[in-house]
Write a structure and sequence with these properties.
By secondary structure, the protein is α+β, with helices and mostly antiparallel strands. It has six helices and 17 strands. α5 (183-202) packs antiparallel against α6. The radius of gyration is 18 Å and the shape is globular. It is 33% helix and 31% strand. β8 (101-103) and β9 form a beta hairpin. The chain has helices at residues 11-22, 35-38, 51-65, 68-74, 183-202, 207-223; strands spanning 3-5, 27-28, 41-42, 44-45, 76-79, 83-88, 92-96, 101-103, 110-112, 115-120, 128-129, 132-136, 139-143, 150-154, 158-161, 164-166, 168-178. Strands 1, 2, 4, 5, 6, 10, 14 and 17 form an eight-stranded antiparallel sheet that branches. A five-stranded antiparallel sheet has the order 3-7-15-12-13. A two-stranded antiparallel ribbon has the order 8-9.
Length: 226
């Protein structure tokens, strides 16, 4: 399931974050790429543990916690500390699959990367190129979102970022280990949760809503890994 989540960050959070990122010192993005990805990755990143990355990462995590759509779609167990990248001057990232297991630089704790996320800090009109293409069983999806918006998709998907030929594409990227390992099961629970919420709006107090809520939580209880 690929889903876009609008307005994860407020306009003020985007502006403050972008100012901090524009003032930071960047390194070659290959520093954190896996063996296969190193050959197709041409971008810049903030080092893990960089003060600006840590501070802004806390803002991103707080924003995720207040997003019901993110919680419903991801059912997060662990979130990798947000990282930040910059594409400019032809920078790109060729087709790849994200590393299955990642270790946090500060603690060494490992997470399974069930979901990948990209949170945009650049406005689409600020740069040419830089589209994220994600491949799944339904085809290829092109993503280029407004600043403050985020896309969430299975980390097992083939994906790439096209060359940025004008301006700079600045974003946060990170991974989520979900309580629900299988993408199909997560999608089923998300669809069920969405239907329950719609029913609650259109038929408040309906016993059908209560019954479906019970089904949702019993499936979650059956499938969740803690």
């Amino acid at each position: 399931m690929l889903i876009t989540i609008p307005d994860v960050l407020t306009l003020d959070e985007v502006a403050q974050g972008r100012a901090a990122l524009d003032a930071a010192e960047w390194i070659d993005g290959k520093a954190t790429a896996g063996y296969q990805a190193q050959s197709v990755k041409e971008n810049l990143q903030l080092p893990e543990g960089h003060p600006a990355a840590v501070k802004l990462g806390e803002v991103v995590l707080a924003a995720l916690a207040r997003s019901p759509l993110f919680m419903s779609a991801a059912l997060p167990l662990k979130v990798f500390p947000p990282m930040f990248n910059r594409y400019t001057g032809g920078g790109h990232f060729g087709t790849h699959v994200d590393t299955a297991i990642r270790a946090m630089a500060t603690t060494g704790q490992r997470i399974r990367t069930d979901l990948s996320a990209t949170l945009f800090f650049s406005k689409p009109e600020e740069y040419d190129g830089g589209e994220l293409f994600v491949e799944d069983t339904y085809g290829v999806h092109k993503v280029k979102l407004p600043a403050g918006h985020m896309v969430l998709y299975p980390a097992s998907s083939l994906h790439r970022v096209t060359p940025v030929t004008r301006g700079a594409r600045v974003a946060s990227f990170f991974w989520i280990q979900s309580m629900i390992r299988a993408d199909f099961d997560r999608t089923l629970l998300y669809d069920l949760d969405t239907a329950i919420q719609r029913l609650a709006r259109e038929m408040p107090g309906s016993p059908v809503g209560v019954q479906l809520t019970g089904v949702y939580h019993n499936l979650l209880r059956r499938w969740a890994e803690m």
